[in-house]
Amino acid sequence: MKLSEKNYYEDLEIGFEYETPAITVGEAHVLGFAGLTGDFADVHVDEAFAREMGFKGRLAHGILGLGLIDALKNRCLVGFHVVAALNWQWRFVGPLYIGDRLRARLTISEKRLTSRKGRGIITLAIKGVNQNDETVQEGTNQIMVLCRLAGA
Question: pLDDT tens, 25-67?
Fold first, then answer.
């Protein structure tokens, strides 16, 4: 596994673990996401309502958290020669608040070659955690990557 360079399928080992940089979820993220998607649910934009629902404050949208995790994954020191993103299996397991510092822990959990020569599929097991090391989101992401010979 190489840092600061893109890795081919052959470079990747099952069980390899790494962590992304972190990002603080801000007011601008939540309001920008609400504006982009039209999701102005009270729990995201109304502090009093969120507290009445038992939260300590307004929540970031779950899909916003997933998007931030994907962005953190893609700007990490560990990179891949990606052909395509294939799928996500995802769960929202805890609240993600405005002001939380989000980062992701990733593990290469599976890998296999495809029927098309020169490509492989890797599965990343991912945990999105906050500044208190609490898991707020988790799941898997499969991506198709180039084999070394395909990149030559």
Answer: 999 999 999 999 999 999 999 999 999 999 999 999 999 999 9
CA dist., res. 8 & res. 146, Å (int): 6
CA 34 – CA 42 distance, rounded (Å): 11
Token pair 């929202």 is found at 92
Backbone angles phi, psi at 61, to 5 degrees: -60, 140
The CA-to-CA distance between both ends of the chain, in Å, stands at 18
Which of 125, 87, 123 has the alpha carbon at shortest distance from 9? 123
Beta bridge partners of 80: 7
SS3 72: helix
Crossing angle between the packed helical segments 62-74 and 27-37, to the nearest 10 degrees: 110
